[in-house]
Amino acid sequence: MKKKIVIDKKIISEESPTYIIAEMSGNHNMSFDRAKEIIYMLKDSGTDAIKLQTYTADTITIDSNRPEFQIDGGLWDGENLYSLYKKAFTPWEWQKELMEYANSLGLSCFSSPFDLTAVDFIDDIGMPAYKIASYEINDIPMIRKIAKKRKPVIISTGVAYLADIERAIKACKEEGNEDVILLKCTSAYPCPYEDMNIKTIPLMKETFDCLVGLSDHSFGDEVAIGAIGLGANVIEKHVTIRREDGGPDSGFSMNMDEFVEMVKRIRNVEKAIGKGTFELRPKQIKERMDMRSLYVVKEVKKGEVFTDENIKSIRPSCGLHPIYYEYVIGKTAAYDIHKGVPMEFGMVEGLEIIDV
Prior knowledge:
The protein is α/β, with parallel strands linked by helices.
């Protein structure tokens, strides 16, 4: 799988900053102006992309009152699938304009398709990538159609067994598309922390040899920030303006100010993670002057024996390396030395240079 993927000229790789996706989902509350406001409020946040969802109630399910079409438990307890999706979908006629508006503000915009017609629609309006939602990971015909579009494919794994992930990736590869990013996800809304299992992120990276990330439905930003430390290349979180405004996804979405703060914290963590190296930064090289070294701490006369009373390892590091301490003890001074003078080779009779 590829380790460098480009969406709208933005590189996603192990060396690049975390790619941050703001999921609007149904948080527009069926208002086009509110959808634009969400995008506008993200323009200077450091977010990389806004994500939409492309479906209608009729393309994602059917209007049925059979028991399996009723939601039992959780945020949408008692809802009928069809009625929920009628409230949550993003009108298709908005999406091109929302994409262009996001682009004008420096944000990418792409979507999750939920049927074959949505795959074509997303391609036709020029969106640069596809996101496959967790519950669609088993729709191999749709994944094959997406892969054939030769655009990056981001796949959530929230309800997937290992075999489901393998099958989805295999379908993409068979269609000649290796621009695949896997997102660790737990499909619970909101998701309890103990169910997140973000240690799976490095395991996914090792198992599938691809870029990975997190689609996060937990409260707060702790899990997303923790995922960065585990090697996540992408973070996706739902965002709304204010949770109290309501809407089908508001209960597990971040307020705008929380989302913007999360982006800032992620960028700070990225700086702190840096790269794995034993090399020192210039400031730390300079700070080495404050390390310890050997100093004469009492007046010493020529021929006098060096003891633990007249030499010590102290700060700063202008004198001999402390490793010489045991070699100096018991030897004699080559000349008179004043208190407070850093030790050097010429002061000690018979002292040989050793490898430090």
